[in-house]
Specification:
The chain starts with a helix and ends in a 26-residue tail after the last helix. Helices cover about 75% and strands about 0% of the residues. With about 400 residues, it is mainly α. The chain is globular.
Amino acid sequence: MAGYSELLRAPGVARIIAAQLTARFPSGMTSLAVLLHVEQSTGSYGAAGLVLAAASVGQAISGPVTSRWMGIWGMRRVLTLTAAVCAAAILVLAIVPLGLPGFIVFGFLAGISNPPIQPAVRTIYPKIVTSRQLTPLFSLDASLQEIIWILAPVVTTLVATQVGTVEALLLIVAILIGGCAWFILSPEVGRVRIPRSRRGFGRVLGKPVVLLGTVTGFLLIGACAAVEAGVVAAFGHDGLEAGLVLAVFAVGSLAGGLTFGHVPIGPWAMARRLAVVTVGVTAIVVSLNAWWMGASLFVAGIGIAPALAAMFAMTSASVKFSETAEAYGWMGTGQLIGAAAGSAVAGFLIDSVGPTGAFWAAAGFAMLGTLVAIVFVRGFPDLRGRDASPIPDTEPVPVIT
């Protein structure tokens, strides 16, 4: 922890971490709040599912696009525009009486205008710390984001059930505006300029590390989504056990990230960390007892934040600075699609064989991710004793002869 204390004392680090966590906090609230609001308005969970699907499609499209825009128009302009549009779309969902088509349209608009805070901050990190501190900072970031997934659903459920779904959406708008304003006005955002990429859109996926990060992120988050569906199916939407077990899952990830954040990242790091997740989620199928499930998910969680940190550090070290934001955008899109796929596969299996089917699906996603990391291990860089900062962009220098 002494290393993290030193890291947080570096100029601007604590502020930018706090600002980006606040700006991203609504991402842990919106899906649940929209689900409850649309279901209450239409009387149909199916309709609510369609609206969430539209929002997810919008987010998947926007990730790499808005991230690339930051290199063209600047971070502050893109973040301000997307935050304003997203807040307006959620406000309409909250206060305007809409039918299902209207909910779908504004759900999609809220998704496609989701501010690219995550790619922005991970592009800033290499510019505010030393190369020695970069890998621990990625690990700290991946760990602290678990706070969002622990607290946000609790806050959303409390406000939506005790006050109202409209108020829950209005709270999201307030946090979104306040958090994004704090982040956008941070000095570090103004000081870091992303160079315009000279390569075509999507060409960064030709980098093996970016493609592998996108694929393994898809499979890792797919496993997590299947786990969440299985836990809810096992204990019911109103079961206290479900919330506690999922909280233990997130605490495991937080503990893993903080404990192993300083471990050097070699080519086999991804396979080892995904293997820990695989062991944990596979163990659940032995018993659906809450204690056993909590212990298994704590073990699984230990590998999650370290695996995400490895993805971010390896990507940072393998692409040009002008391509980092777009690379993180593609990885975010992969994770969003993974969440949708994991939830869908788990849902079908829950209907056919019960909650255990969801955990078999989670084990399958995690095993496949581990297998990909093993088979393509040569595609991962060795960062042991190496700078994890992005490759600097260079320009031809005119020579007078």
